[in-house]
Design goal:
It is a single chain. The protein is α/β, with parallel strands linked by helices and about 200 residues long. The protein has a single domain, classed as ATPase, nucleotide binding domain (Nucleotidyltransferase, domain 5), CATH 3.30.420. It is built from six helices and four strands. A hairpin with a 3-residue loop joins strand 1 and strand 2. The radius of gyration is 17 Å and the shape is globular.
């Protein structure tokens, strides 16, 4: 809220999972769920699953780093066998393999020969983000979206936000006015920690 200086703010941290938070027009935290990582976004019975729940299509598989890493091979990124989507190391509760794979995706975005194909990864995640915000808007009045987390860093993050804005503008014109906000690159990586540390003392 202090960064954006506007209310009806929905924050999404696209890191090892998906962190979420919302404040209303007056900057108040509501008594509603603010953790979005297990919201079901994809109702397709063949949607990807995760190691934590028996459900498929949950939010963090589309708005966390696993959203990008499961698309790495399709995006033409050269990844070692242990970082490919079907590898056991990529389908467990550990995040190290996904962090390594995401760095390879980000490196591909800086390679002129690989960028056109790798860009499609971020465009796809941008589509996920646009549709997710539309779904979240069924329950929250969203005028502003603060996007951070390592998935939003670098040139790929800009591609992702442009595509999300396009989805809202074309598919959900009533939601087109949602404004996207991003912090600097350092805050993007550690912003969730800073936000948590800045929460007021509620007393005992």
């Amino acid at each position: 809220m202090l960064m954006v200086k506007q209310g009806n703010l929905f924050g999404i941290s696209m890191g090892s999972s998906e962190g979420g938070g919302y404040c209303d027009l007056d900057g108040n935290l509501l008594g509603w769920i603010n953790e979005m990582c297990y919201i079901q976004l994809d109702l397709n019975p063949d949607a990807p699953t995760d190691p934590w729940t028996p459900h498929c299509g949950v939010s963090h598989m589309y708005l966390g780093q696993r959203s990008a890493t499961r698309l790495a091979v399709l995006g033409g990124v050269d990844v070692p066998d242990e970082c490919k989507p079907w590898a056991p190391e990529m389908n467990c509760m550990k995040h190290e393999g996904h962090a390594k794979c995401l760095k390879l995706i980000q490196a591909a975005m800086k390679d002129p020969a690989k960028e056109p194909q790798a860009r499609k990864i971020y465009e796809t995640v941008g589509v996920y983000l646009g549709y997710a915000l539309a779904q979240y808007s069924e329950h929250y009045a969203i005028d502003n979206a603060l996007i951070l987390g390592r998935c939003s860093t670098g040139d790929g993050g800009s591609v992702m936000l442009d595509k999300a804005a396009e989805v809202l503008r074309v598919e959900f014109p009533a939601l087109g006015p949602i404004k996207f906000h991003t912090p600097d690159e350092h805050f993007k990586r550690v912003g969730q920690c800073i936000a948590a540390a800045a929460l007021p003392d509620m007393g005992k």
